[in-house]
Each structure stands twice: as C-alpha cells, then as structure tokens.
Design brief:
By secondary structure, the chain is of the alpha+beta class. It has a domain of about 160 residues. Helices cover about 40% and strands about 30% of the residues. The protein is built from six helices and ten strands. The strands form three sheets. A five-stranded mixed beta sheet has the order 6-7-8-9-10, with helices on both faces. A three-stranded antiparallel beta sheet has the order 3-4-5. The chain has a two-stranded antiparallel sheet with strand order 1-2. Helix 2 crosses helix 3 and helix 3 packs across helix 4.
Length: about 230
C-alpha cells in the first residue's frame, strides 16, 4: 500500500493512496460529457446518463414560472458556488491551505465547505482519493468527490450544494450516482463497497446528509437507467 507523502493529514484524516487511481480524459459527444477509458472507448458520464433519462417536467415548469433569464442566473450562480465549494473541500482533504478570498461567491462557498467539514467529514477516518475517476468497462464513467472510510466502512462520498433543504424523495439521483461509482470502483479494484453518503450544504449554511439505505435496490435502479439510456442512443 502506497502512502502519499508518508501520511498527509488534514484535521486528523490520513490521506492514503490505497489504489492506483488515474485520471480519465473528458470528451464531448453531441454536447454531452463522455470519458475516454484506457481501451480507447468513449463512454457516457454518470451525470449524462441520469440527465438523459430524467423526467424534466418539474424543471421545465420551474424555468417557465421564474422566467428563462432568472432561471439561467440561478443555475449559473449555483454551479459557480458548487465548483468553488468542491475545490475548497478537495484542498482540505489533501492538507492544502484554504483561503476564502474577497469574492462573495468564494466566501460563500468557503463557508459552505466549512459546514461539510465540521458536520460530515468528522466521521471520515481515511481518505483514499479525492476527485477520483472511475469507469465500468464499456458502459460508463464518472468522477466521485471522495473515496475512503466512513464510520468504519469503505465508502463513496459526494458533496452537494443546494439552495434549500432537500426531501428524501428529491435526492434519488444522488443515490444512483453513489451506487454507479461504487459499482465502477468494485469492478476496477475488486472491492466490495456498498456504503455511499452524500453531504449537502445549502446556501444558508444548513447541513444535510443522506446515505444509501438499500444498496441492492438502488443498483437495480441504476442499471435500469443505464439500459434506458442505451436504448435511447442506439
């Protein structure tokens, strides 16, 4: 087992390179994100599969209700906050100095990252990789925020930002993402990861967390989505 710079520590979390994670090249196909796997194939990202198979009626109704310009402004601002928050959390787990900066978006994202650090990462005892590229041969690929040990179990961990608190029935796509990454990791590295946890911070600094409560159920749902996707594109 290779240990990165002996053991990197951030607030007591060892950063251990337990598996030989490598980066996958991101590509675009028909405007949708794909990855190139080591065998030269281009496969859709997990988010591309979910977007293509998602019921978009609620989203379309929301955009119509608030107006296209306002909806785009909200979407862009949320995406920017999420990107900066993820970057801040990546620095934290790698033991790199984090600074909030003077930009209001950066300050908000920094504060949201702190909420996840203080409420979610306290139960993470090891980090094996951050921003980890994973793929399931010939089917799909993606990048998960964190792989490590959560409450004693190997786990896939993801970070999300939100404008408001979520109900459980609103986060089904998060479960599907977690099991998709778990299945890919298990296939690539011969692991048995069945624990997945998503940490959410709202833009009002409210914390939520959801976990995979029935792995086999959500795996079945994920492969059904994958089958639906390939029926649509082939």
């Amino acid at each position: 087992m290779k240990i990165s710079e002996d053991v990197l520590k951030s607030k007591g979390i060892p950063y251990i390179q337990k598996y030989p994670y490598g980066e996958l090249s991101k590509t675009s196909k028909d405007g949708k994100r794909h990855y190139e796997t080591p065998d030269g194939r281009q496969v859709p990202s997990v988010t591309t599969v979910l977007s293509a198979t998602k019921d978009m009626r609620h989203l379309h109704a929301w955009r119509k209700r608030v107006g296209e310009a306002k909806a785009q402004q909200i979407t862009t601002e949320s995406a920017n906050i999420g990107t900066v928050m993820h970057g801040s959390l990546e620095k934290h787990v790698k033991g790199i100095e984090r600074k909030p900066g003077s930009n209001l978006i950066h300050q908000k994202a920094h504060a949201m990252a702190n909420v996840i650090i203080d409420n979610g990462l306290t139960d993470v005892s090891e980090v094996w990789g951050s921003e980890v590229s994973l793929y399931y041969p010939e089917l799909y690929a993606g990048t998960t925020d964190l792989v490590g040990v959560y409450k004693g179990a190997p786990a896939i961990l993801d970070f999300k930002q939100a404008r408001r608190l979520k109900k459980k029935e609103w986060v089904e796509d998060y479960y599907l993402q977690l099991v998709a990454y778990s299945e890919a990791h298990n296939k690539q590295y011969d692991t048995q990861i069945k624990t997945g946890r998503v940490f959410i911070c709202t833009q009002n600094n409210e914390f939520q967390t959801f976990n995979i409560d029935n792995y086999d159920h959500w795996v079945g749902q994920w492969y059904a989505k994958l089958e639906q996707y390939y029926k649509q594109v082939l």
